[in-house]
Amino acid sequence: MPSYVPALPGLTRYTWWGAVPEGLLTKTQLDRQGLKPGGEPLGQVLYHGNCYAPLYEVTAAVAKRPCSPAQKAALDRARDLQYVCRRCGHHDDEPLGRGRWCDSCSIPAALFEVHDQAQQHARQLVADESAVLLVVDVEPDSLPTAQAVAVVDVRDGEVLFTALAGQYGTPERGEVLDRLDVLLADRRVVREPDHMGPYSRYPGALLRLPGSVVQPGPDPQHPWATAHHLKENPSVASIWSGWFGWTGYPGETIPSVPRDGAVPWSRSLDVAADGRSMAAVLHRIADGTEPVWESAAWTTDGHGEPDLSWDRRRTARVAA
After folding, report:
1. What is the DSSP-derived secondary structure letter of residue 134?
2. Which of 41, 60, 124, 252 is deepest in the core (most CB within 10 A)?
3. What percent of the chain has pLDDT over 90?
4. Are the C-beta atoms of 230 and 106 separated by less than 8 Å?
5. 3-state DSSP call for residue 203?
6. Taking 90 as the threshold, does the pLDDT of residue 93 lie above it?
7. Is 229 left (phi over 0), alpha (psi -120 to 50) or beta?
8. Would you call 274 exposed, middle or buried from its count of C-beta atoms within 10 A (0-12, 13-18, 19+)?
9. Are 104 and 88 contacting, i.e. CB atoms less than 8 angstroms apart?
10. What predicted TM-score, i.e. pTM, was given to this entire model?
11. Which letter, b or e, does each residue of 79-96 get, where b requires 16 or more Cβ atoms within 10 Å of its Cβ?
């Protein structure tokens, strides 16, 4: 039931059913008589406190075309399917709603959808000539000196740039930032988040010390170095965790990196090698050859992968 249906402009409003003149009916009332509107609405009536239903003249209504046997059979089947889980076939006592998942399938289905989206992200990145991985290494005990940066092409794993970043405020650091500004302009920049390395990894560390105040939104000088970019370009760890399907407890629908920190790419002080390793992971996810968690919900509940064809068809229609 809609929570709010606004009034139509220019039509008389009736605030209670007793005020509606004879000869004016709603679509539902006409339908019960085997009729449908034969013209434009002549008024509207308030119902449920904040919804207006158009009113049509009965004398202008026309008879509804009866369903053919094939149409009726299709409608009956559609009504029956409202109670049947489209994944495991369980028949419920209540309609299952838009997703048509039973309770036991809703969680595996949600996790598999994230898994499927992760592969779509990986395929987009692998196919995008502008996509690059930006890997920054920071050793907290040695700030601000021990810092390096690398830019790796996602498509072929080529190292486009690698250098020691230099100390904060030095010409060496400025030269690195200037080089990154030019190299990453109009690029799709993907990153590994800061909690994934043996040391902290985050591009913002090239601009400021950890713990310093950061203004929200993209950096006007260095847009590649702010968290704003993460919303548009998921990190490698985010894509991989969605694909891998690890969850901390049963019933969780948001996968994450395992608590033991086990990831399938190298984590070292060689940022270029780590970037190439992460690019290889994205290629394996795109190809479907990267392993998933042995206890991933959609592989262990006995029903296999959910049928997402309906969702994909709907997405394609919306995109068109």
Report:
1. E
2. 41
3. 36
4. no
5. helix
6. no
7. alpha
8. buried
9. yes
10. 0.71
11. eeeeeebbbbebeeeeeb
